[in-house]
Write a structure and sequence with these properties.
Layout (H helix, E strand, L loop, with lengths): L2 E11 L8 E8 L2 E6 L5 E7 L4 E2 L3 E3 L15 H4 L3 E6 L14 H8 L16 H10 L5 E4 L1 E2 H9 L8 H16 L4 E5 L10 H13 L3 E5 L7 H15 L2 E4 L12 H14 L4 E5 L4 E5 L13 H7 L3 H12 L8 H5 L4 E6 L10 H8 L4 H11 L4 E6 L3 H9 L3 E3 L17 H16 L5 H4 L1
Parallel strand pairs: 1-4, 1-5, 6-7, 7-8, 9-10, 10-11, 11-12, 12-13, 13-17
Antiparallel strand pairs: 1-2, 2-3, 14-16, 15-16
Helix pairs in contact: 4-5, 5-6, 6-7, 7-8, 12-13
Bound molecules: zinc ion.
Length: about 450
């Protein structure tokens, strides 16, 4: 008679394939599942009765930024507690490598607002293997599947230079990308709202995507615009897939800003049409109608040319302030225009390293507290005071759109957060703790947008 170390008895088993769930037992020895089914006759050192409970494989989070906090919180409790055992990291163009000697400071400054301040990052690594050996030493039990961030890749070759890549620069980027893919990276991500992703033209992306395709990797993209130019941005992502043959995943799909609500019906149709033409395109979505990112995304990306230091110096010049304010207020900004699209009131500070008391305050409240007649002047003064270092939550999506995307078979639910812990402080987006419980509680159990099997 078979003996296991442990048997979970009488659970409802969802195997993660989407197949119908069934009641049964699970036999485990060591760290392996050895048998699934009716194990009535089997013996075990320990038997756990899980009647009335569902048992499922550890969840795979296809899009998060766990790499940005894992050295500070190697136990990754905020992820383990929501069922996630595997995280795809390096998203939105923001991977922790490759890093070049020439631009080590650039990438360090750039990723600083995303990184947990508890850990002193040495930035001594030059490639993903180097970074992940630090992660391995931390003893984490979270499985991490790395992507190469196109932003980080471009910084390694040309810093924050906004000009198109020359032939030599292109060759240098492809060489670094190829090395990372040979070493096991799963593909490449881009973050086309974040410089230098935003400086990158479609053709440059296509050329890099060809390298990714040749390794059977995939291309994940934070679109150039998720608001007024959402449709064009989806078209661009699909064009990258079409030109290079790479599989495409649209990151945290949404329509930002009230005027764009409902556009996801069109984008999902565009994806279906592209698939019919042979482009392998899918999307992911976090189960909340609010977004979160760094406050530098409120400005046109040209404000960041030359890096964070150059941006802060520039924001002291009255004419620059006036130009930026006009560009935002008159709706001429290329990137999504959160200030105009959702208003100061719906932008809430999550964390401000320099001045923690701003966490939880909206920009409207901050501007009001500072007084003066021009909200942009007050905003820029505040921005300089905190050195442009803060994260924010943006209340800018429609709940109906979130539901539409979750219900669509081409989407996967993700968290898009980083590992954290209560001691980290701030008022972070709840997705860092609650994405998968919310999927199963709200969208599966309460609203029945998906069946339990589909949800899992
Ligand atoms: Zn993103």
């Amino acid at each position: 008679m078979k003996a296991f170390d442990r048997i979970l008895r009488n659970g409802r088993i969802c195997d993660g394939t989407g197949n119908p769930s069934f009641h049964g037992d699970i036999g485990i020895s060591g760290d392996r599942i050895e048998a699934v089914g009716r194990l009535d006759a089997a013996q075990a050192a320990e038997t756990v009765d899980i009647s009335g409970l569902v048992v499922a494989p550890g969840f795979i989070d296809l899009h998060n930024h766990v790499d940005h906090g894992i050295l500070a919180y190697p136990d990754a409790n905020s992820y383990i507690m929501q069922g996630v055992t595997t995280s795809v990291v390096g998203n939105c163009g923001l991977s922790m490598a490759p890093v070049s000697d020439a631009h080590r400071e650039d990438v360090r400054d750039y990723l600083k607002p995303f990184l947990n301040k508890k850990h002193p990052y040495s930035w001594e690594w030059s490639d993903l293997s180097g970074f992940f050996s630090c992660v391995e030493q931390s003893g984490t039990i979270q499985n991490l599947a790395p992507l190469v961030g196109q932003g980080t890749l471009r910084i390694a070759v040309k810093g924050f230079d906004p000009t198109p890549a020359t032939g030599d620069e292109m060759a240098a980027m492809k060489k670094l990308l190829r090395a990372e893919l040979e070493n096991g990276a799963f593909g490449m991500s881009s973050g086309l709202i974040y410089p230098p992703g935003s400086y990158t033209g479609t053709e440059e992306l296509q050329e890099l995507a060809r390298v990714v395709a040749s390794f059977g990797g995939y291309y994940v993209t934070h679109l150039r615009n998720e608001g007024d130019r959402l449709i064009e941005s989806v078209d661009e992502a699909i064009a990258v897939g079409e030109a290079s043959g790479v599989s495409v995943q649209l990151s945290h799909h949404k329509a930002a800003g009230r005027g764009n609500w409902g556009k996801v019906n069109a984008t999902l149709r565009i994806m279906e049409e592209a698939r019919a033409r042979g482009v392998d395109v899918t999307c992911d979505v976090y189960p909340y109608p609010a977004a979160m990112t760094t406050i530098t995304s409120l400005l046109p990306s040209r404000a960041l040319e030359g890096g964070i230091g150059a941006m802060l110096a520039r924001l002291k010049i009255p004419e620059v302030r006036r130009e930026l304010a006009d560009e935002i207020w008159q709706g001429r900004m290329k990137e999504e225009n959160w200030i105009r699209g959702i208003g100061w009131r719906n932008i809430v500070i999550a964390e401000s390293r320099v001045e923690p008391r701003y966490a939880g305050m909206s920009l409207e409240e901050i501007i009001k507290e500072r007084g003066g007649s021009d909200p942009f002047e007050a905003f820029f003064d505040w921005f300089l005071e905190i050195h442009g270092e803060a994260t924010m939550v943006l209340f800018g999506m429609d709940e109906a759109d979130v539901r539409t995307i979750i219900a669509h078979p081409l989407s996967a639910v993700i968290s898009d957060s980083w590992v954290t812990a209560p001691e980290a402080g701030g008022r972070p987006h709840p997705r860092g703790y609650g994405s998968f419980p919310r999927l199963l509680g709200k969208y599966v159990r309460e609203e029945r947008v998906l069946s339990l099997e589909e949800g899992i």
